[in-house]
Specification:
Blueprint: E1 3-10, H1 32-36, E2 47-56, H2 63-77, E3 84-88, H3 94-104, E4 111-114, H4 127-138, E5 149-152, E6 155-158, E7 163-164, E8 173-174, E9 182-185, E10 188-191, E11 216-220, H5 228-236, E12 239-244, H6 252-265, E13 268-273, E14 292-294, H7 300-310, H8 317-326
Parallel strand pairs: 1-2, 1-3, 3-4, 4-5, 11-12, 12-13, 13-14
Antiparallel strand pairs: 5-6, 6-9, 7-8, 9-10
Helix pairs in contact: 3-7, 5-6
Bound molecules: succinic acid (SIN).
Succinic acid binds at residues 11-12, 27, 57-58, 90-92, 115, 117.
């Protein structure tokens, strides 16, 4: 039988509220053992070991916790007797943690994140079933080599591409234009696609213990957005991800301020888009001096993670551009 380690971090899957209801609850309240007792059939899937890493609402996640979590999982997964890891996590920032782990875990063994939209105390809570399927997936050899993956609502998603697209329904996730990696029916997994992007064992960020990340902020553009706050962010960060309109676009005032920040502070800029689907290409009108790296198909919050890691390796603009194409 396979050995799977569950690393529990909290979230709605561990949430407690008014009995039977789906609202007015607090995430990260009960321990993972209390969820596991509701799915006794998991004992047929794998031998389980539990690490209650923390128990929080995922809005408490931050770069320091990501590094600690990644270092912990890397320690666990390198043990010969461990076949896979399941991470339980809040849905609000699962897309960020999954991408961070996708870039920093040095193993092709399955690492599967899951969570829930309904608290553990709700009628028909979705967490136990998601957890059951995540354990089955982590114990499945077919789940190897896909990078870090997320199991939610019968669907297997890539940790790079998953995005929360609904803040209410239990089918809350999607992979933008790329569909999904596969489906699950009970404990059976059906994979039908693979990511082309570099991850886990091949990732240049997965080779060493993480100790420090660069500081990167996100600036959201909207019609009439004041450019002054870009300078404030540039004074306090190594990089800024710009969430532009359309193809990562913004006003001429922003274009001028980007040049000012580059000249004064050496800020590294990435252009992402507030449009959920598509791809951001480099542009000579909105980026006349070519100061920005295009986010490619990464959302702003994922582009921030890549830039935080990438800036620990290089500040060379060409190399950073290559990294954004590759990852
Ligand atoms: C959280 O992200 O911890 C709260 C929301 C959720 O898990 O659905």
């Amino acid at each position: 039988m396979k050995k799977i380690v569950i690393v529990a971090t909290g979230g709605t899957i561990a949430g407690v509220g008014e009995k039977g209801k789906t609202v007015a609850y607090h995430a990260g309240e009960i321990n993972i053992d209390d969820i596991l007792v509701t799915i006794p059939d998991v004992k047929h899937l794998a031998y389980l070991e539990i690490v209650q890493f923390m128990n929080v609402d995922s809005n408490e996640m931050n770069p320091d916790i990501w590094m600690k979590l990644s270092n912990t999982i890397n320690q666990i997964i390198k043990c010969d007797d461990v076949d896979g890891v399941v991470v339980t996590h809040g849905t609000d920032t699962i897309e960020e943690t999954s991408y961070f782990l996708n870039l920093t875990i040095h193993s092709d063994k399955p690492v599967v994140l899951t969570g829930a939209m309904r608290p553990a105390t709700a009628t028909s809570a979705d967490g136990p079933y998601n957890l059951y399927q995540a354990i089955a997936l982590a114990a499945n050899d077919e789940a190897k080599g896909h990078g870090v993956i997320v199991l939610f609502s019968n669907t297997i998603y890539s940790g790079r591409d998953i995005q929360k697209v609904n803040n209410y329904k239990i089918d809350a996730f999607d992979q933008k234009s790329f569909g999904c990696l596969g489906y699950m029916q009970d404990e059976r997994a059906y994979f039908f696609s693979k990511t082309f992007k570099t991850h886990t064992v091949q990732s240049m960020f997965s080779n060493e213990k993480l100790e420090k990340l660069s500081s990167v902020a996100i600036a959201y553009y909207y019609a009439g957005a004041d450019e002054a706050y870009l300078e404030y962010l540039a004074q306090h960060n190594d990089g800024i991800v710009l969430v532009g309109s359309g193809n990562g676009n913004f006003s001429k005032a922003w274009v001028r301020m980007i040049e000012t920040c580059y000249q004064k502070y050496g800020t590294v800029f990435v252009r992402a888009s507030r449009v959920p689907l598509g791809i951001v290409f480099s542009d000579h009108v909105f980026d006349p001096n070519q100061r920005c790296i295009s986010s490619n198909t990464l959302s702003a919050q994922k582009a921030r993670i890549l830039l935080m890691l990438a800036l620990t390796k290089t500040t060379d603009f060409k190399e950073l551009k290559t990294i954004f194409k590759k990852y």
